[in-house]
Amino acid sequence: MAYDIKVPVLPESVADATIAAWHKKPGDPVRRDETLVDIETDKIVLEVVAPADGTLEKILKDTGAVVKAEEVIATFVAQQNAAASAPVQTKQSATTTQTTQAAPQQAQPAQQKPEVPSTSEQILSPSMRRAVGEGVATAQPPAPTQAQSAPQSAKQPAVDTAHGRLEKRVPMTRLRAKIAERLLAAQQNAAILTTFNEINMGPVITLRNTYKEEFMQKYGVRLGYMSFFVNAVVAALKRFPDVNASIDGNDIVYHGYFDIGIAVSTERGLVVPVLRDADTLTVAEIEQKIADFSKSARDGKLSMEDITGGTFTITNGGVFGSLMATPILNPPQSAILGMHKIEERPVVENKQIVIRPMMYVALSYDHRIIDGAESVQFLVTVKEMLEDPARLILSI
Known about the structure:
single chain, alpha+beta, seven-stranded mixed sheet, 27% strand, elongated
């Protein structure tokens, strides 16, 4: 039985898509539900899978081709004994349309990919680990098949015969192009300022070290730092509602809920899954959701719902070792908190120099809606909550 492999119905507001990579070549045997092709849009990557056991007969649209919804891109022949199957299925994987500039990193503590997966830490791809020099032995990714390889212009680097130096020109993917577009829009359409502070992470580290084993045994998930930051941010947002608001035309929209985006780095780029109603979640629920998001992001299984919306974002440059950076707003949100590397530094307490595990934090905000004093007080509130975690429990 023959099938037409078609572009799936595209997300709302998406006019077309690009063939990102074919995972099979004409003539290759294919098992049912095995991925045939990745189709890239401005927002997500769609994985089109085989409708049955059979053979990919012919590819009609090569890698890089721009296609429309329900356009035929290949033909497929099912095995004669293969049962009739449902229409071709697709799987969505989150894209990197978020604009947060996760410092030199992604979004979870430090070298947040350093200790592989704190429920609140980021998932780094092998190539990213090598790039940041973590020194972690990782398996080399398999060589791409002919169908998966880059366009011809990117396969062979151009040679400067005069000087013997190599260059390679690679077309920007639409996901990367969308990131660039949003980053520029964020800077051009908002009055972005950044305020800084530093936090003594000693109390949180002590609390975490005291209960992390018991926490793991009871909830089956690791106790990370991100849940502390989420709770501290929610407490501060309740005090300063402008930081949780957004601008829509000439209106200011005040959100009566707290949907916190957690920036996560993936092989395809940065994504920001959202913790819905974070103020109603327990520490264990926050850590579990972040762990689930990290795994889904790594496996390319985040949905559009997972990455849509959000009233405030947290990103962690410390994962890659960033000591300080200025995160970029994630429109239409009006503020974003940047976490950084925890580093022991000398500080003065009671006129004595002591060594403390300190973290610089940065709050980038839209000055059109948030005043400077308000932004500073917001960040001071986060600092106070984390330096005295009992405040989070007592809500003071």
